[in-house]
Amino acid sequence: MKTVKEGEVEIEVHEGESYDKEVFYNPKMEFDRNLSVAVASVVEPQRACDALSASGIRGIRYKKESEVPEVWLNDANPESVELIKKNVQRNGIDVEVRNKDAAVLLREEDFNFIDIDPFGSPAEFLDAASGSIRRGGFLAVSATDTSSFFGTYPRVSKRRYARKSMKTGYNKELGLRILVSAIIESLGRYKKTFYPRLCYFKEHYARIFGEVVEGAKEVKENFKNFDYISHCFSCGWREKGYHEECGLCGNETRRTKVYASKLNTQSFCKKIIEECKERKFYEERRKVQDLSEDMDVPYHYDLHYIAKKQSLPVIKTEKLMRRLGERGYKTRKSVYSPTAVKTKAPFEEVVDCMD
Ligand SMILES: C[S@@+](CC[C@H](N)C(=O)[O-])C[C@H]1O[C@@H](n2cnc3c(N)ncnc32)[C@H](O)[C@@H]1O
Ligand SMILES: [Zn+2]
Predict the structure, then answer these.
(1) For ion ligand 2, residues whose CB falls within 5 Å
(2) Which residue CA neighbors atom 18 of ligand 1 most closely?
(3) What mean pLDDT is predicted for residues 147-167?
(4) CA 205: distance to chain centroid?
């Protein structure tokens, strides 16, 4: 065993753990745990559940650093629970520890804040979490099965999240939207809905934070934020809405219906930015700042992707932005890729500016 210090806590972890196998402690997730601590501090839940705890680090930090009054830590693996208990004791905190299947625990108890942080897909936990989460609560969901929702395995995405993913030049953002859509649909079955507040992709994982609201009317209203993204794999054309034919080359498109509204809300992000500043989480703060300024368009234009599809040379991102600006379009570098641009300009106009 070795000791690890993260945030204000110190825990024991198994020696020689590396991040690509199933581990109890993954140092690469510190960034995410820092942000989660900031989110829990801002949201101030009464009762939080770290449903897949592993070493317990996340839940322990919720208790110690976010000062959540009641925290539950759970893991299905008895070995992990042993470790959690040791780490809880070491940090001198008072929390509930359970050794159950997360879905079972969530069926039995309800919470104001639920963190689902699995290896792979969160899909199998969404239904139980949807039942468990209280009105006005908050959900934090991670997913590492990027090859499914980023478009390498569209059918796996369909099975897990009820829609096929698409390997487009904006597949990361689309992947986040696929996850958000599945969460909203799951909550809808319990007359609850979900508003994403902070969503991002980093290294090998996606992370979604959002608020849960109750009521059939709210559920119905939120479904109005869903729309199709139609994409032509022949020429790269894309547009919001249901279009069977490509607007540029006339070939058949592929379509997927997703939550197409904002993934990050400015007022919430502002609070998180302040919280990160106070806690000296500088890298996290920069990321949230960047996300909060994202444009309200559900996809971006990746220069490499479009150049390839249109047999054009790759120009500098700044050059495309300048040319679009000259035509009166607002532009912004995408938060998902340094070689991609967000703009309300239609595809045809972007292609024209790349020529
Ligand atoms: C990625 S780790 C959690 C990491 C932890 N949240 C952190 O921040 O360090 C996933 C954990 O989920 C546990 N697990 C897998 N399936 C589970 C289930 N059905 N119910 C509860 N725990 C489960 C595994 O034993 C593993 O410890
Ligand atoms: Zn086309």
Answers:
(1) 232, 234-235, 237, 246, 248-249, 251
(2) 101
(3) 98
(4) 8
Tens digit of each residue's pLDDT (9 = 90 or more) over 266-285: 999 999 999 999 999 999 99
Question: Can you spell out the DSSP letters for 281-329?
Answer: -HHHHHHHHHHHT--S-S--EEHHHHHHHHT-PPPPHHHHHHHHHHTT-
CA of 152 to the centre of ligand 1 (A): 25
Burial class of 338 by CB neighbour count within 10 A (0 to 12, 13 to 18, 19+): exposed
Closest ligand 1 atom, CA of 32?
Answer: 8
Residue 63 has pLDDT above 50, yes or no: yes
In three-state secondary structure terms, 63 is helix
Domain shared by 165 and 205, yes or no? yes
170 and 211, same domain (yes or no): yes
DSSP 278: H
- Torsion, Cα of 82, 83, 87, 92 (10° steps): 0
Q: Is residue 249 part of a domain?
A: no
**Given pLDDT bands bounded at 50, 70 and 90, which one contains residue 20?**
very low
Distance 117 CA to ligand 1 centre (A): 7
**What is the extent of the structural domain holding 319?**
301-354
Band of residue 2 on the pLDDT scale cut at 50, 70, 90? confident
End-to-end CA distance of the chain: 59
Going from the C-alpha of 132 to that of each of 104, 176, 194, the distances in angstroms are 10, 23, 14
